[in-house]
Amino acid sequence: MLDGYGRTIDYMRISVTDRCDLRCKYCMPKEGIQKVDKSRILGYEEILRICSAAIELGIDKFKITGGEPLVRYDLMELLRGMRKLQGCKEITMTTNGQLLAPHLEELTEIGIDGINISLDTLKPERYKEMTRLGDLQKTLEAVELSIEHGIKTKLNCIVQRDFNEDDVIELVDFALSKGIDIRFIELMPIGIADAEKGISNRETMRRIKEVYPEMKADESRHGNGPARYYRISGKRGSIGFISAINDSFCESCNRIRLTSMGYIKPCLCYEDGVFIRPYLEKGDKELKQALEEIIRFKPAAHCFENIKEVDHHAMAEIGG
Fold first, then answer.
1. How far is CA 89 from CA 10, 54, 62, in A?
2. CA-CA distance, 70 to 95, in Å (whole number)?
3. 87: number of Cβ within 10 Å
4. Domains of the chain
5. Given its phi and psi angles, is residue 162 left (phi above 0), alpha (psi -120 to 50 degrees) or beta?
6. What confidence tens digit (pLDDT) does each residue in 224-271 have?
7. Of 23, 92, 103, 21, which is closest to residue 63 (Cα–Cα)?
8. Buried-most residue among 60, 66, 203, 311 (CB within 10 A)?
9. pTM (2 decimals)?
């Protein structure tokens, strides 16, 4: 359906948990977040009902996120249920990769349409410092296995000042050597990330062009997100840039978000959201009407320039 600004909303990001097995420094405090009682987390049947209502409104593409979605018990059960929904065209997932490898056979069987894996460095000690708990080798093995299973695999990278700037070219070369896309995502000032120092994608692009001046725009479709892609002649895979801060894409935004506790956020930036759970109790008609109303009043643009309005929850609580 169209929102109040004429944008087609056909994509929903679904956070299935606020929990994560890592403590990435731009996402969660070192000590973690205060965990929500499991009784307050949406059950799979509730999520499927919301998806069904969303499909009736024209939302037919879904991204499973967290926290880390693979820490949620029996996630495959939800994915199988979503795959059975009439009208569901696409299911993808974002993960840090630490728990991914054992699930790839089943994900392939279910027919996952794509997996985005977070990877900010190829240096083991730096990876450990950034994630606080992570093992780089597990993520690298997951990348290899995901590709081997024929799953459309992408890497997500956040570049931070005075931390991993010098990893950019190494990460680009790694991704393109595997024939997969890598996306550089500007750090957004949400939760504790407000204290971190991000780097604009303009600067990251300049760094890449110093090594690969022949980089040219790639107009082919790569997914449902706002990334602008570029190709390097003779290389497989593309380089994407998601530049929410320095190159706003709000005019073409096509998504809403469902948090693990049942809030619908029409825009990632704003703290407020609509608690959808009461409408589940009322009935499917009321649920659909509530979603329709939320979409109709989706904000025109984000508010990252006004820090007072920005959501101060950790990204893991909102859904990455």
1. 10, 12, 8
2. 7
3. 12
4. 11-318 (3.20.20.70)
5. left
6. 878 899 999 999 999 999 987 777 778 889 999 999 999 999 988 776
7. 92
8. 66
9. 0.91
